[in-house]
Amino acid sequence: MAFVGVQLTRRRVGDRVEFVALTRWQTMDAIRGFAGPDITKAVVDPAGAAALIEFDTTVQHYELVEEAVSS
């Protein structure tokens, strides 16, 4: 697999905490290798799912157009 990395963000919403995971992959084929043929279906580790009240069952994919980093 060509997994590049992940950013996990969170924010407090009332008495809950909402998380967003942004994963980076080298290619769409790498995503297919991880997720299977339906790349819109979320892949959630069972231990992670057990710790969550709810989670999205689908995902969206975006192509990186440009990245700016501070030096």
Tell me the strand percentage band. Answer: 25-35%
Rg over C-alpha atoms, rounded to the nearest angstrom: 14 Å
Helix content: 10-25%
Query: Could you name the ranges where pLDDT drops below 50 across 5 or more consecutive residues?
Result: none
Please report the number of helical segments.
Answer: 2
N-to-C order of helices and strands: EEHH
What brief labels describe this structure?
20% helix, globular, alpha+beta, two-stranded antiparallel sheet, single chain, 71 residues
Structure report:
The N and C termini lie far apart (29 Å). The protein has helices at 28-35, 46-51; strands at 3-13, 16-25. By secondary structure, the chain is α+β, with helices and mostly antiparallel strands. It is globular and about 35 Å long. It is built from two helices and two strands, in the order E-E-H-H. The model has no long low-confidence stretch (mean pLDDT 95). It has a two-stranded antiparallel sheet with strand order 1-2.
Quick summary of this structure?
This protein is α+β, with helices and mostly antiparallel strands and 71 residues long.
Summarize the topology.
Elements: E1 3-13, E2 16-25, H1 28-35, H2 46-51
Antiparallel strand pairs: 1-2
